[in-house]
């Protein structure tokens, strides 16, 4: 889901920069009492995937009900009166993450529409890369868009499809979109889950105990755990699962192709207690730390994670290097991720709000700091400065991902290329800019080794790593095709 900032009601301008700043979490329940309450719990476990807004659409005896709000899940759905307005045994929900741009309620998902075949709600995680082009042609055909999110094209494509069944209309719509999408959708006959043909974003299927035919779809397994659902399997790339009173069936409307799951989910985005595509995120992060220590070891007294994202890889690093692991930086959990803050001023302030130095662990020491990524460099710079001020003798920064050199167009929040530190500077310059005595990133092959491969196979990487390589596996139709945006966007992103 992303905002289409060039549609007629929202002229391109400064905000056009914000067209790619979205990440999301989705959740769905079929055939369970209090489906909306389970969905609220699931969304709570997926809060890390989006903190800006949340919505739930439930389906009860009297039809569909919806509640959406801006803010955290607990604030929106923590009120029993709100939950009482969402009766039913089926529901879908969505968490939205946007750093800037339009924060209107009309963009909060799930999107809902009344079609000839009945009500239909859909929640989308990912970004569509031809949404602008589709939207332009749909508007010319008379479709009236209600929001500025790319996800709304699904709704119109389904509405105008000439196929008879909901499933065929959905397939018709999916065949017209390019991009990354994990969807959960609900109509009065079924809960539906979909992953795009390359499976860029995650989606898992779970089963609730008790009545035997209660099912859950979620972005990550941590959302199954919170509702006590048993993990059944990942929805496969290009697969549609249809869950109805007969159980679960699967349709694969796309030609088979090698999958490209987002490698950054392992590095940073997914919750560490989730298991993604059979691989536990926590263990992967520890292995990344281990590889990093092998590749770029340095003499030091202590390994310190930048919490929370650097913790598992710092543990792996410390074990492999045989250097003590210490919490030399303490995180204040009562502030959000710094990255969410929309302006540079607040973002700078945010780092101080979020982290403080644990002086006793740093004073007089040679410190290895481990974080998951450097994007703009704001966090690293502030943390290095903070650690030095706390009396560290040396500060060596180690990063558990390769340099982020390219923007993501498939659903991870990254700034434009010219704001990515690694797009403009080599490692030595970056070390100087962040003020570290040394800086090293894990190699691309090292990252793939941590995922159990021999290295990166350029012919079939198996993961989307475009943010580190610029290898964009899904066409960037809007970026390449839109005359007015093309020069600026191409220049910004080096595509
Ligand atoms: P920066 O300060 O711009 O270099 O951002 C790097 C910090 O932001 C790291 O500590 C990461 O943990 C975090 N980070 C990296 N990518 C993202 C993202 N897509 N969304 C939110 N936070 C991120």
From TrEMBL:
The active site is at residue 24. It is an enzyme of class 2 (transferase). It comes from the Bacteria. InterPro entries: GATase_2_dom, Ntn_hydrolases_N, PRTase-like, PRTase_dom, PurF, PurF_N. SUPFAM superfamilies: N-terminal nucleophile aminohydrolases (Ntn hydrolases) (SSF56235), PRTase-like (SSF53271). It catalyses: 5-phospho-beta-D-ribosylamine + L-glutamate + diphosphate = 5-phospho-alpha-D-ribose 1-diphosphate + L-glutamine + H2O. Pfam families: GATase_7, Pribosyltran. Its cofactor is Mg(2+); [4Fe-4S] cluster. PROSITE patterns: GATASE_TYPE_2 (PS51278). This is Amidophosphoribosyltransferase. It comes from Muricoccus roseus. The lineage of its organism: Bacteria, Pseudomonadati, Pseudomonadota, Alphaproteobacteria, Acetobacterales.
